[in-house]
Amino acid sequence: MRFVKMHGAGNDYVYVNCFDEPLPADPAETARQIADRHFGVGGDGLVLICPSERADARMRMFNADGSEAENCGNAIRCVAKYLFDRGLTQQQQLQIETGAGVLPLELEVHGGLVERVRVDMGPPILEAALIPTTFVGKPLSAETLARASGLEPGTTAVVDAKLPIAGETLRVTCVSMGNPHCITFVDKLSDRWVLELGPKIEHDKHFPRRVNAEFIEVVNPREVRMRVWERGSGETLACGTGAAAVCVAGVLAGRTERRVAVHLLGGDLELEWADDGRVYMTGPAVEVFSGEWSPQGEKVSQTR
Questions:
Q1: Do residues 85 and 25 share a domain?
Q2: Which residues contact 154 (CB under 8 A, 6 or more apart)?
Q3: Which of 15, 96, 230, 297 is most open to solvent, judged by the fewest CB atoms within 10 Å of its CB?
């Protein structure tokens, strides 16, 4: 099976062109094998670039544990780069189908290759049952609605909810960008937050489909540092949907403005919760290497 290794701000996946390659018979098992950093190609998961009847292509993304995710903001930028750089499209405005719907993308092309991509991540999902979480959403205050222009009066959201975990109580804000996120603002980022509490939050009973856990240190109202424990993959160097959710959570919690730079371990992303109610993300897309892979660890060959 031919593949390309790509990353967006260090969030790395193995990409397979299913326009040409047959769809794996068991994508979940293929993801577990190929994402293994010791016995496979290595990555945060597997991305299948497939034909779509609704868009220019369809993205299916499987985490390193084989679970299929609805969306991935870093992976979708790389899908756009793959399509353009390999001549599958000549358009610099694309639409990609995901498990969270069809998302529009704008490509920044230099020297005939895509360097950055702006993704319309769509409007955030704030209703507790749709995130999903068993927390009860509460109506947003007039002050919050004024900050988050575009929301209807009576909108409910889970903001600064009390989450008992590991003998302490966290204040969390929950947002879905087509996949669920639980955001905790902290005074100072540390391994303890991510590596100790991250997996506990992922599997907490308040999140029936598990959850991505983001930990945020606010530098100033337009700049934050973020570390993330991703559902099904563990700590990753970046999470695009997570950064989008953090942009929304910062506004709801009164901690950040609607435009914010998010500094992640793997690089920076630019986020905006625009007046039209949609979240826009801009960030890099990078190809690392390509090669051929055989299942069961029989052979891995890599070529630049």
A1: yes
A2: 139
A3: 297
Whichever domain contains 272, its CATH number is 3.10.310.10
Q: What local confidence, expressed as pLDDT, does residue 134 receive?
A: 98
Kindly state whether residues 161 and 263 are assigned to the same domain.
yes
Q: Of 72, 78, 182, 247, which one is the catalytic site residue? A: 72
Provide the token pair at 99.
Answer: 């498990």
For the residues of 100-166, what is the DSSP string, one character each?
TEEEEEEEEEETTEEEEEEEEEEPPB--GGGTT-SSPPEEPPHHHHHHTTTPPTT-EEEEEEEEEET
Q: Is 239 a catalytic residue?
A: yes
Q: Which string of DSSP letters, residue by residue, matches 187-238?
A: SS--HIIIIIIHHHHHT-TT-TT--EEEEEEEEETTEEEEEEEETTTEEES-
Give the number of other Cβ atoms within 10 Å of residue 213's Cβ.
31
Eight-state DSSP code of residue 21: S
Instruction: Check if the beta carbon of residue 84 is closer than 8 Å to that of residue 107.
Output: yes
Same domain, 136 and 273: yes
DSSP state of 92: S
Q: Note the pLDDT of residue 71.
A: 94
Annotated catalytic residue, options 18, 78, 182, 239: 239
pTM of the model: 0.92
pLDDT (tens digit per residue) in 41-55: 999 999 999 999 999
Q: Is 18 marked active-site?
A: no
The pLDDT of residue 183 is 98
Distance CA 286, CA 304 (A): 13
Q: Which residue ranges of the chain lie beneath pLDDT 50?
A: 297-304
The one-letter code for the residue type at 50 is: C
Task: State the residue range of the domain holding 107.
Answer: 2-120+285-303
Residues 273 and 148 in one domain: yes
The pLDDT value recorded for residue 298 is: 44
